[in-house]
Amino acid sequence: MANPIPLSKVLSSVLLLLMLLSTASTAAPLIPVEISPAQITPGQQIQLRFTVQYADEADAEFTAPPRNEWGPLQLVETQAYPARWDQGVWRQEFELQLLVPEAGDYALPRLWVEIVEGEQRQRQQLAPAQIHVASSFEQDAQEQPLMRMQGEIPSEGALPKGLLAAILLGAGLLITLAVLQRARRRSAATVAEITPPTPADLARQCQADQTPQWEALRQWMQAQTGQDPLALAPDSAAALPAAHIELLQRYQQARFAAPRPNNNAPEPRPAAFIRLCQACEARLS
After folding, report:
1. To pair with 154 at 20 to 30 A between CA atoms, which of 59, 175, 183, 253?
2. Which residues, in sequence order, are CB contacts of 260 under 8 Å at separation 6+?
3. Residue 89 maps to which CATH number?
4. Per-residue pLDDT for 49 more than 90?
5. How many C-beta atoms lie closer than 10 Å to residue 96's C-beta?
6. Given pLDDT bands bounded at 50, 70 and 90, which one contains residue 9?
7. Does the keyword Membrane apply (predicted)?
8. Range(s) of the domain holding residue 108
9. Which residues sit opposite 85 in a β-bridge?
10. Which residues pair with 96 in a beta bridge?
């Protein structure tokens, strides 16, 4: 007959199991992450926002992962907003500014916030998030037929021959008019694409509404220099004039300017955009 298991060992095993279950049930939930804007294109800067809550005597600290863990994504800026007291806890919002240079699907690296209370530190992990970047040059969707003729032609005698001929002729005229109207719209759109706004036009518009049109200037510079400002590489830059390289680099610096070392606020984007448009008008036009 086998020896019975001591009662002390049984109680120890049960206590250990209860402790493991208690730890699993009280694990901190993942912090949700909000990504904006919803539609993202290459070269666009996006915002990641998340909110952390903690007790009265605690504090929150966020440290961004090193550069090699972000992959193609580029971390431009990290900002922690002042905490606010809400319903018995502190709530603090954090914001990350990211740059996505290429189209594709990206996963964020593992991110977490440390809750510091005295000598104790507890990590709260952010929920995993996927970033989809759509191409800026999406192809037009396939056109649907203007009209589908369905059903059988009535047998002879159901309609007078003259009336049937008039119906078919009218349908043919309607189809022809629809095709001509679509062709005129396409012709007008093609002319608009061939004659994009100049840097002088973009500068005047920015002075009026204080909204830089970065993508319009990017397409104009690519048409003039043969080089995409957001895809400037050493091998492609070697064949370009020095003036072109300088303007292409100024585009990247002006569009994605980081905060100055002695000033938390970046340079005003409209002013930098207007100066770049004036330089492009003087050197590339």
Report:
1. 175
2. 266, 267
3. 2.60.40
4. yes
5. 21
6. low
7. yes
8. 34-133
9. 90
10. 48, 78
Using one digit for the tens of pLDDT, what is the confidence trace for 194-230? 677 999 999 999 999 999 999 998 999 989 888 898 8
Residues 38 and 118 in one domain: yes
- Number of independent structural domains in the chain: 2
Give the least confident one: 28-37, 151-160, 225-234.
151-160
Give the end of a domain, one of 133, 161, 187. Answer: 133
Write b or e for each residue in 201-228: b if 16 or more Cβ atoms lie within 10 A of its Cβ, otherwise e. Answer: ebbebbeeeeebbbebbbbbbeeebebb
pLDDT at 40 over 80: yes
Lowest pLDDT segment from 139-143, 255-259, 270-274: 139-143
Question: Within a domain: residue 184?
Answer: no
Instruction: Specify whether the CB–CB gap between 53 and 91 falls below 8 A.
Output: yes
Gap between the Cα atoms of 90 and 113, Å rounded: 14
Sign of CA dihedral 266, 269, 271, 277: positive
Residue 205 counted as domain residue? yes
Instruction: Tell me the mean pLDDT in the region 18-38.
Output: 70
Write down which residue in 133, 161, 176 finishes a domain: 133
The three-class DSSP label of residue 60 is strand
**What sections of the chain are H helices per DSSP?**
7-25, 161-194, 199-209, 214-225, 234-237, 242-255, 269-283
